[in-house]
Amino acid sequence: MSVVSRKYPELNISDRILLSAGPTNVNPRVYKAMNTAVIGYGEAAFSPVIEGISSMLAEVFQTEKNFTMALSATGSAGVEAGMSNLIKPGDTVIIGSYGFFCEQMAEMARRQGANVVLVDGEWGRALPPEQIQDEIKKHKNIKLVGMVHAETSTGISQPLEDISRIAKEHDALLVVDGVTSLGGSEILVDEWGIDYISSASQKCLGCPPGLSPVAVSELAFQTMDRVEKDISSWYFDLRLIANYWGPDRSYHHTVPASMLYALYEGLRIVLEEGVENRFARHQNNTAGLRAGLEALGLNVLSDEQNRLAQITPIAVPDGVDEGKVRQHLVNEYNTEISRGLGRFAGKVWRVGLMGESSTRANVLHLLSALEHILPQEGYEVAVGAGVSAASKFWSAG
Ligand SMILES: *Cc1c(COP(=O)(O)O)cnc(C)c1O
Hints:
Blueprint: E1 17-18, H1 28-34, H2 47-61, E2 67-71, H3 75-86, E3 92-97, H4 100-111, E4 115-120, H5 129-136, E5 142-148, E6 150-151, E7 156-157, H6 161-169, E8 173-177, E9 196-198, E10 212-216, H7 218-225, H8 238-245, H9 257-273, H10 275-295, E11 311-315, H11 322-333, E12 335-336, E13 338-339, E14 348-352, H12 360-376, H13 385-396
Parallel strand pairs: 1-12, 3-4, 3-5, 5-8, 8-9
Antiparallel strand pairs: 2-10, 6-7, 9-10, 11-14, 13-14
Helix pairs in contact: 1-9, 2-9, 5-6, 9-10, 10-12, 10-13, 11-12, 12-13
The structure holds pyridoxal-5'-phosphate.
């Protein structure tokens, strides 16, 4: 044996307050569910898990039409699965571009050999549907229109109804990245006519990362039948995966039982709270945060009209080292927030209040921490002003 054996310490990672763009805090009931015994994916005793998840997902996605299941992978894979199943090389696709995850979706489409037409918007604003309308007219045979619903990089909620109508008028499928939306803000899959939408377990569902819930329309499945090539990914062939999630329960791959137990419990918690109450909680806690940030003189970058409750992008004040502030938060306050992505890198902090992490206590904790940290990093604030403004906001509401 030539490889020297070392000693490996037991893992020692303690709980943190996760106010980042994900992962978010995991509900203790979810951790408990993950302790459930692993059994065979084809056993009768496992079926209620699969059926329960599919049915609860249909409720949260608000769909009676689309087929709902969870892919064994993270959010990005869910988006990529949509692209790889629906696109054949040479297809023209239209992608709205107004943030980091939009660009990522476009890149995934490009790698499927699509002719990608980007409709450029502004980072921090929603894309006006007229821009999609103007562009779509210039092309024939558009396979799909791809949009990010909750753009986590910019804190924008993209309205989809008009864009759906435009896509339908041109016989294009509507494909949506709903990674940050599911469980945090309204998604009406049937009403908005979404053909394919994917999400992730670790944003607003209170679960660890590792699963990507999806909802697939009949039209999307028919399109896959017509793609006239093998889906480039065998593992993410949605029709094969649907054969496991459907009544046949045909083997495709060994599903990650512990993660599915987690998602099952996470969805039960979402429905116990009630989706409407949950959305209201996300809105209200973030509104308190914004009031506090404003009192500290900090700027929220997302356009007020389409602000996302899940994530708040804050402009880093001139002269402040954004990384150092995050380090203080981790080291002294046991709290994570996110850095900016893409063209927002170094200029923006992103505060996530998603799922379990969206609480008033977390908002007050973060504001208080920032009041102490920012002056040390050269940005003076009126200590107490942020916490006070948030409290006043909630008292008035
Ligand atoms: C987090 C995120 C993703 C990527 O999901 P992973 O689980 O990290 O793969 C994709 N799109 C959006 C909008 C996201 O917020």
